[in-house]
């Protein structure tokens, strides 16, 4: 399997040249655009690696599935989905248009920035610091990695340049979606996006989801089966934003991308996969990462459809 992963990486490394690093968060522009790596964690405990799998990256929007799970644990399904919908959108991840014209009381889904910021506002904590500490501890648990923490430079970079997210959040405060202090909610959101991980860490989260909410390495249940199934469903419909349909056709695995170049994939009952390739396509998804997943899906017969 390691041989297969090495060859899949080398077959697809050329795609990284066609993508571009995310520059709207200046610190992300410092990544190496040739990087391409993969990690697989199977439900029976095997681990496989290929390419630049040791590269650390910030998980960015991949954090949105972590905070969705935590918000559901804290509030239950009814309250969470009274604040945020589950409908896919054909617009960019940071688009503002639907908030005003279509759905002022409810961002369309928890994977776009507006929906993710609304979701994080629901997480319990006595203040922002406490709330983020809970997110970090939950992330450490579901990755099995107690040393996970944030990349301070990326966090500061996001915080200084996050005006689009600020505008989404203040708009949602004006329509009552966000009830808390906006700057506090945004600070937690910027921190969750700046959590630093490797392919193995995100593959482990994928393995937990593939295993319907139970950590395969310890047998501990962290979320209910119905939550795990729901999160995987939202990953299929919204996980790659306005490229989710194309990705479902090409790859057919519940996945979540981030502008740091990571993609987390969960193959039900089989494995979690983490890929990193910071060169992005025009929709903000890893160019090489998608191609690696497409080849693996074919080679290992992973398409859920
Ligand atoms: O808020 C942002 O724009 C980034 N911190 C996260 C966006 C992101 O990862 C979109 N993913 N492809």
Could you list some keywords that capture this structure?
305 residues, alpha+beta, Beta-lactamase, 2 domains, five-stranded antiparallel β-sheet, three-stranded antiparallel β-sheet, 46% helix, globular, binds 6-diazenyl-5-OXO-L-norleucine
Task: Give an account of the 3D structure.
With 305 residues, the protein is α+β, with helices and mostly antiparallel strands. The protein has 2 domains: 2-60 and 196-299, Beta-lactamase (3-Layer(aba) Sandwich); 61-193, Beta-lactamase (3-Layer(aba) Sandwich), CATH 3.40.710.10. The chain contains 13 helices and 8 strands. Helix 8 (163-174) crosses helix 9 (182-193). The longest helix has 16 residues, at 128-143. It starts with a helix and ends in a 5-residue tail after the last helix. The model has no long low-confidence stretch (mean pLDDT 97). It binds 6-diazenyl-5-OXO-L-norleucine. 6-diazenyl-5-OXO-L-norleucine is lined by residues 60-61, 93-94, 113, 158, 165, 193, 257-259, 284-285.
Helical residue percent band: 40-55%
Number of strands: 8
SSE order: HEEEHHHHHEHHHEHHHEEEH
CATH class of the largest domain: Alpha Beta
Largest sheet: 5 strands, antiparallel
Helix segment count? 13
Radius of gyration: 18 Å
Q: Beta fraction of the residues?
A: 5-15%
CATH topology of the largest domain, by name, is: Beta-lactamase
CATH superfamily heading of the largest domain: DD-peptidase/beta-lactamase superfamily
Q: Give the distinct bound molecules.
A: 6-diazenyl-5-OXO-L-norleucine
What is the end-to-end distance? 23 Å
Q: Report the average pLDDT across residues.
A: 97
Q: Report the principal-axis shape.
A: globular
User: How many distinct domains?
Assistant: 2
CATH architecture of the largest domain: 3-Layer(aba) Sandwich
| Spatial ordering of strands, largest sheet | 2-1-8-7-6
Specify the structural class. alpha+beta
Low-confidence stretches: none
């Amino acid at each position: 399997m390691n041989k297969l992963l090495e060859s899949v990486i080398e077959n697809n490394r050329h795609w990284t040249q066609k993508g571009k690093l995310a520059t709207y968060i200046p610190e992300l522009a410092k990544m190496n655009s040739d990087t391409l790596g993969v990690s697989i964690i199977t439900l029976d405990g095997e681990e496989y690696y290929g390419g630049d799998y040791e590269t650390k990256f910030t998980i960015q929007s991949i954090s949105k599935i972590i905070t969705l799970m935590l918000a559901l644990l804290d509030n239950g399904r009814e309250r969470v989905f009274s604040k945020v919908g589950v409908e896919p959108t054909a617009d960019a991840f940071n688009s503002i248009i639907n908030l005003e014209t279509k759905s002022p009381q409810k961002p369309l889904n928890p994977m776009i920035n507006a929906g993710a910021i609304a979701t994080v506002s629901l997480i319990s904590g006595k203040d922002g610091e406490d709330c983020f500490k809970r997110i970090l501890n939950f992330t450490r648990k579901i990755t099995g990695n107690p040393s996970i923490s944030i990349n301070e430079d990326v966090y500061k970079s996001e915080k200084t340049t996050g005006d689009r997210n600020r505008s989404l959040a203040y708009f949602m405060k004006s329509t009552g979606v966000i009830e808390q202090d906006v700057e506090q909610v945004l600070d937690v959101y910027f921190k969750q996006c700046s959590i630093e991980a490797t392919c193995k860490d995100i593959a482990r989260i994928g393995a937990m989801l593939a295993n319907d909410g139970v950590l395969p390495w310890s047998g501990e249940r962290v979320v209910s089966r119905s939550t795990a199934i729901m999160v995987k469903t939202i990953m299929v419909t919204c996980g790659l934003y306005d490229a989710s349909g194309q990705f479902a056709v090409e790859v057919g695995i519940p996945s979540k991308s981030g502008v740091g170049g990571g993609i987390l994939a969960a193959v039900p009952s089989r494995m979690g996969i983490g890929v990193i390739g910071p060169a992005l396509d025009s929709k903000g998804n890893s160019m090489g990462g998608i191609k690696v997943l497409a080849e693996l899906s074919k080679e290992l017969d992973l398409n859920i459809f």
